Amino acid sequence: MAWWRRKRAVTGEVKKSVPKGVWSKCPSCGEILVESDIVDNRSVCPACGYHHPLTARDRLASIIDKGSFVELGMGVEPEDPLGFKDSKRYRDRIKQAKKKSGESEAVIAGTATIGGRPVGVGVMVFAYMGGSMGSVVGERLTRMLEVSLERRHPAIICSASGGARMQEGILSLMQMAKVTAAISRLREAGQPYISVMHHPTTGGVAASFSMLGDVNIAEPGALIGFAGPRVIEQTIRQTLPEGFQRSEFLLEHGHVDMIVQREALRDRLDYLVRILTHR
Amino acid sequence: MDGPTLEFERPILDLERKIEELKRARGSDRKLIAEIDRLEAKASSLLDQTFAKLTPWQQVQLSRHPARPYTLDYVERLTEEFVELHGDRAFADDEAIVGGLCYFDHQPLMVIGHQKGRNTKENMRRNFGMPRPEGYRKAKRLMELAERFNVPVLTFIDTPGAYPGIGAEERGQAEAIAKNLEVMIRLEVPIIAVVIGEGGSGGALALGVADRILMLQYSVYSVISPEGCASILWKDGSKAEDAARVLNLRAQDIKRLEIADEVIEEPRGGAHRDVDVMARRLQSALARHLSALRALDTEVLLAQRYEKFRRMGVWSERT
Ligand SMILES: [Zn+2]
Fold first, then answer.
1. Which of A22, A49, A160, B229 could be cross-linked to A126 through a Cys-Cys bond (beta carbons 3.0 to 4.6 Å apart)?
2. Is B124 exposed, middle or buried (0-12, 13-18, 19+ CB in 10 A)?
3. Is the ipTM, as predicted for this complex, more than 0.85?
4. DSSP single-letter state for residue B53
5. Which of A 76-135 lie inside 8 A of B, CB atoms?
């Protein structure tokens, strides 16, 4: 799939259980399709291959063995250490984010198997405050990585995040170092860590664990980079070239190992876990 | 004091200038001498009053003060025989970061820091202290060099942030920063980081994973610039003053949040008013921390560094 298709706005997320017979128009090719057919196809348009945004739970389910997931750190919940308030209070944003995403924070982490092999896995929830990384994301990911270290499992993190969570100030910035520290222990122990970057992966998440995979995988057309395109445009006062900071651009410049279509991701992860733990 | 000033410094500086003029004209005029004494007392109390109730935004302005001492000002005062080392061995020498070997207290030290410029020409060269990936990769190279020869690392943090540009993204800004975090967490020599001015986001943290994090009293450390935060949350960059308040970015906030280990008091009116005094205070703090860290076995040093960052964050746990 070409990256520019991603540019089109997609509103609403594909829910897991769509009743049969609900029709929806593909925002990319315009084809009218039965929604349950799209969901069954990992939310990839059967007509044109457009990757609809996937909920984090569906993303997780699409890469691991059915029924194998054991969640870690579910009880770890956000606080409001700065008493942060802009036009809204952080506490209210947290409540809204829970409701909107159906998740308790911006990452789901735990253990699972892929092709029967145990792995630690974390999937970021973009629908929860833009997948932003605060203390809870840092703590849940760190616990998952530490469990992986202890049990000698490979670890996989699927990123989808705008970066650090401003409402937690400096504490959110430090999560970059905290999660990276846990990854460095896996590295020293010779256990693989695979990073999968979804749309979008930017800021402090890109500039920490997302870019540090033994293998870096990008989904087609994802926006991946340190600075957001708007910030760059404002700084250099020129329009950015087409395709800038998209997965294909990152592959061309040597920052990711491969671009993998959603429907092929599970098999590719299975392969990598198998070959990297062969010994 | 001449040179660039901030708005809230101006009434103080106007008074001080007037005092200087009177001093030149005084002769043995008793009335004038009394007037000078009176004005000096006034200037002094105005300075104390202003600095006793600095707003967070004023502190941000101080941290960016154009006369504020930069990395090389401290290197010059704190170290001996500094020899700069250049380049990332891959692409370029990024002068927004300087680094090199030197002696501190007669012991070898690797010093690395963001470097801003004093004027337009210098700032072109230093890119306003905003590094590109090669700056971070140079820093990484120097840290690994220090590790090989068992030399401790001192970093000075003073940057608005990593440079947001096309080339920087092409050459992997995100990866360059990420890699430094990883290298610093496992580097087998003591590391001390000092925020001397602006600690701007990931571009600051890329020199900030250390055994000790020290901050000068009027420095700031933030996940995002107040301007950037305001333009996202209020959709209005001019609300930076409000953003500075909610971000809790002052040295004392960072200490309270248990990220900074120590806040080093600045001379009255800020480090730029007496760089030598500032440097001496920094010298004694650094000597103290360095000797404590040198006494640790590498294994203990690394375990403590891991734990330090492992604990960071505030959350609750439902059981
Ligand atoms: Zn389609």
1. A160
2. exposed
3. yes
4. T
5. 76-79, 81-82, 84-87, 134-135
